Amino acid sequence: MSSNKKYWKSVEELNENSSIVEALRNNEFVEEIPTDEFLGNKDSLSNSSTTRRDFLKYVGFSTAAATLAACEGPVHKSIPYVVQPEQIIPGVADFYATSVFDGFDFANILVKTREGRPIKIENNTIAGAKFAANARVHASVLSMYDSMRLKEPKIAGKPASWSDVDAKIKAGIADAKASGKQIVLLTNTLASPSTEKLIAEFIAKNPGSKHVVYDAVSSSEALDAFEAVYGERALVDYDFGKASLIVSVGADFLGDWQGGSYDTGYAQGRIPRNGKMSRHFQFESNMTLSGAAADKRVAMTVFNQKQALVKIYGIITGAAVSSNLDKAFDADVTKAAQQLKAAGSKGVLVSGIQDKNAQLLVLAINQALQSEAFSTAGTRQIRKGSNQQVAQLIADVQAGKVGTLIMSGVNPVYTLPNGEAFKSALKNVKTSVAFSLKEDETASVVTVAAAVPHYLESWNDLSLTKGAYALTQPTIRPLFNTKQFQEGLMSWNGDAGTYYDYLKANSASYTGGLSWNKVLHDGLYAGASAPAAGGSADYSAAANALAGSKSTGLELVLYTKVGLGDGQQANNPWLQEFPDPITRVSWDNYVTVSKFDADKLGMTNEIVANGGLNGSYANLVVDGVKLDNVPVIVQPGQAKGTVGLSFGYGRKAALKEEMKVGVNAYALYKGFNDVQTVSITKAGGEHEFACVQGQKTLMGRGDIIKETTLEIFNTKDAKVWNPQPMVSLDHAEVEATKVDLWESFDRSVGHHFNLSIDLNACTGCGACVIACHAENNVPVVGKSEVRRSRDMHWLRIDRYYSSEETFAKDNEKKENFNGLFGDKGSLGGFGQMEHASDNPQVAFQPVMCQHCNHAPCETVCPVAATSHGRQGQNQMAYNRCVGTRYCANNCPYKVRRFNWFLYNKNSEFDYHMNDDLGRMVLNPDVNVRSRGVMEKCSMCIQMTQLTILTAKREGRVIKDGEFQTACSAACSSGAMIFGDVNDKESKVAELLEDDRMYHLLEHVGTKPNVIYHVKVRNT
């Protein structure tokens, strides 16, 4: 342990505010060393009697002095506990089970805390915890430490006490009742039985008041359809693990469709077992995660999607309905429908079309199939918003009928398509209140801005699916002067006690006889419910109405990006810098256009000399509403006649300057319909994107992504579909893995870690990327640095497009190159392979340090900063690193990152690490790296060592599954499996021997400890 003793040279140094001390600290050598007197003068140097030895002394001393000054580390002062809390052991993490739902994202999670600070989100893996954290939930821990949060309540923009706020709201309620005006509670979907009970009590005490539920991104049409058939307002919770055939019409169920969290079940059927795997058809406009994973993807307009749905309904049910489907798609749709009918109960159809008639047909088709993946029991309660009720409220506010409007969890000034009109109409409301985490677009213009705690500081309960029950518990005391919306309701209702007391008393009705402590410890009660009653509607009328829909020209398809979702966490730098899985662009939203339409409109993308991506600007007009200067991405796979644009960007209020990026797509969300008729024209200028993947294709490098078809996988030997690279040894061909330039060492003693990545199960969701950020203190560098290829992500998810229709045809094309310079020659051919197909196949591949047993980085480091551990990890000693970057040049996987700047406490990089609040998220078990050193994936050595030490302290053998890395623990699809290959009973040891296993660039001979599995497509 280093000494805390302070050494000083003069009494003046004890005065930390002394300008003299500061000057000395910044200028160690007060007088310049007079080397220039003779080194800078040719005559004096030639006449000098200075020996070569003395010359080297001078040069060596000045260089060493500068180096030492540059490497001087910062001093951190620690303050000990006066009285140590019993629950906290310094250096030991505590975990709390909780659940999260913010109206858009939800998950059953564990919260890791250190010395009372929540620092990381992990998945709750207890039985019944079915909702895993996505990238946004993992990043939400940083949002709690956002210095731009609303820190206290405000009345008319000025700080106020909670008693004043309470009195103001009660007076507003009384005034509205006296004047005969409406009292409205406007909230997001709550999914909280206790909160909904409080609201019901509020309405009972205030007759005439009402509760309106508003979801920024609406699922109202699907809710309306389900309510019409089954009598309850909910969404079906599909289980894709029970389906052998999946047909999706415009539903990105691996993204945010119906809240997401479907990847676990989906991945179960996508890994080939006993010669079988599920088959997936995707009909869509924008290229999505679901489309990227599909075996057969067909790009089509939403108009054609509606017609496809009608045709599928006719084939499945035998109903006589006519479809106006474009003939170009007829064969593919018919094939999908016939296979779906043949699959019967093992088939399932889903759709994301925001049309009640379309959603009615989805219910009809799954009923006809008697689909096992479709169940009306345990429906999702995470969307309850009604477009009609929200539209009526807007009209009432504009007409001055609302006297008191109390909002919670919503930001309508930003998210409504007519947000500015709503902002003006708020002046008609005498008392407007916003319970908000931030002083956002709405909270900044209301009468009362009530600061609420983050969910990690709050008590609550959740019923995410019907019959299930989960608790949200605080993991830290509130950082600011905040109160929950529920506490306000209790006060207005005249209830005594705290919300915790109310919650505990109310919970007994939902926990199935389990004790409060048991549910609190587990985080949830995995209850069940009976199937919904009813189940019929006039499906033929719905089919005919849908068939009668008209094509209205160029379609704008609005969607939510994996990074920012609905935009609640727009001030979170982890999410802003997270590269979109499809486009690999961060720090922006953009309009996606097909190559066909881009050529017609004169819009282009080009990669410039520094590797950055530049693109045109476009002006969009929807029903008279215009968005100017929207950047353009020419997107392979975008349906002709459609363009895409994501929500969540374009925010200005309560954001740091660096986070004010993009355009507000909600402005075009007319009628809460995610498909709009748009006119688009090219604008002047050129936009600079921060894109981390300039290479758009595999370029024929077949040993990076290996894939095959299920037919070949089942009928051919593994040497055919997983060929081993061959090299020449003594003029004979041998497998590259059998040849070794190194003397190997015994790896069978102790632990030896491997990470397995299954390309069939990986959906590219990016949860692992954000989890790695949180666990390993990975810095955010900003758009300008990302554009210079200086992003610091320890883990990247490479996205590959095929230049032909399939990767197999890419390889055929490569093999037919003739070596000449023409179009069919190798140079011309590889140039063509840089251009993705109009509808390419897509493959995702997570890449981190491969922890090579024969690591080329280790041999070139002049100071032995990178070395190999006995447990298989390639280790970095940051204090030894002098930043030569030889290791990065010698790494064939390009996974090492160089700290060009100090990203911590640097005003040039204002990404939450310049204030004490933001730095509370840092993991004390991992160094915060300084400028001038290399960093990379450590295979979370701090986590593996903790597991070893814990088992040793408890005197037991480590169980399989205990060893985890941040990425493997975050992976909800099961694509990443981590473990000890010396434990022959472990899952990772089994995967190491699997026929699908291969290593990246095996012919290089690096012998990595990260293994991949060949991607199999069920085409």
TrEMBL record:
CDD domains: PsrB (cd10551). PROSITE patterns: 4FE4S_FER_2 (PS51379). Residues 753-783, 840-871, 872-901 form the 4Fe-4S ferredoxin-type domain. It holds the Pfam family Fer4_11. It comes from the Bacteria. InterPro entries: 4Fe4S_Fe-S-bd, TAT_var_transloc_signal_dom. This is Prokaryotic molybdopterin-containing oxidoreductase family, iron-sulfur binding subunit.
